[in-house]
Amino acid sequence: MVPLQAYLILSAIMFIIGAMGVVTRRNAIIVFLSIELMLNSVNLTLVAFSAFFGDATGQVLVFFVMTLAAAEAAVGLAIVIALFRRKQTINLDEINIMKW
Amino acid sequence: MTLEEILFYIFAAGGIISALLVVTRRNPIISAIYLIVNFFCLAGIYLTLHAQFIAVIQILVYAGAIMVLFVFVIMLLNLGNESLLRDGFTWKKVAAGGLGFGVLMGLIYIFMMQIGTPSIEMERATNVGTVEAIGRVLFTRFLFPFEVTSLLLTAAIVGAIVLAKKKLD
């Protein structure tokens, strides 16, 4: 039987990989993909705890996280399209009008 | 080693390798395809946890719907000069990697100390991941959040249309 720690460590590794992707990449699309990776690793933690405690609440939370991810992807990609239309780039280093 | 453990380690290795490929590939479409591979590995891991409903939803909603949206937008943007987006080697990345490694080691230390986690010997319930069990909780205890979800999705649809429209008038 796989211990709970194995699931948690796998989830932590995937979360850190996603976080590294968010802070090091400059392509807006890949930053979004990294955010999806981080959301999924948190889902894995919730499902693992839910299965080990025998409580379905964690899996219901995963259901809500997926809804949130769908909403986030739709709005985020709309922002990327709007930005690309204005600036002809998705390089995050060049999108700095809110930077002081 | 039982079949469950073998499957877990295969899917875990696949998940980590595909996650690394997602953040290191230069072409966004290849990253998106590796993210789909990652979602399939995660669905397999959910099955080893007896969470059938979440595993099916993972493939249907994530790999099926959300990733189609991503691939569609990548296709729509049609990025010509990808050489401008080339990510070179910088000391910032080394610092970020070191910091991430430190956080990861801290997390693994906490998990290994078993602070606030159930003991390993705890018997795992096999009937919480079924559609029936999740539906029972979702439509009783979480009925109000479930209904609020529809509001969130409506707001997201309206927001996406407003943002992606050519002219606001």
| Coarse structural class of chain A | mainly alpha
* Count of alpha and pi helical runs of chain B: 6
Please state the oligomeric state of the protein chains shown. Answer: heterodimer
Average pLDDT value of chain A? 89
Strand residue percentage of chain B: under 5%
Overall strand count of chain B:
0
Described by strand count, sense and barrel closure, the largest sheet of chain B is: none
User: Total number of helical segments of chain A?
Assistant: 3
Poorly predicted runs of chain A: none
The amount of beta strand of chain A, in percent, is under 5%
CATH topology of chain A: Helix Hairpins
Low confidence ranges of chain B: none
- Radius of gyration of chain B (CA) equals 21 Å
Biggest sheet features of chain A? none
**CATH architectural grouping of the domain at 1-80 in chain B:** Up-down Bundle
Main interface pair? A-B, 70 and 85 residues
The CATH class assignment of the domain at 1-80 in chain B is: Mainly Alpha
The CATH class of chain A: Mainly Alpha
Helix amount of chain B, in percent?
over 70%
Describe the structure.
The complex is a heterodimer of chains A (100) and B (169). Chain A has 100 residues and is mostly helical. Chain A has a single domain (4-94), classed as Helix Hairpins (Orthogonal Bundle), CATH 1.10.287. Chain A contains three helices and no strands. In chain A, helix 1 packs antiparallel against helix 2 and helix 2 packs antiparallel against helix 3 (57-87). The termini of chain A are far apart. The mean pLDDT of chain A is 89. Chain B is globular and about 50 Å long. Chain B has a domain at 1-80: NADH-ubiquinone/plastoquinone oxidoreductase chain 6, subunit NuoJ (Four Helix Bundle (Hemerythrin (Met), subunit A), Up-down Bundle), CATH 1.20.120.1200. In chain B, helix 1 runs antiparallel to helix 2 (28-48) and helix 2 (28-48) packs antiparallel against helix 3. The interface between A and B is large, with 70 and 85 residues.
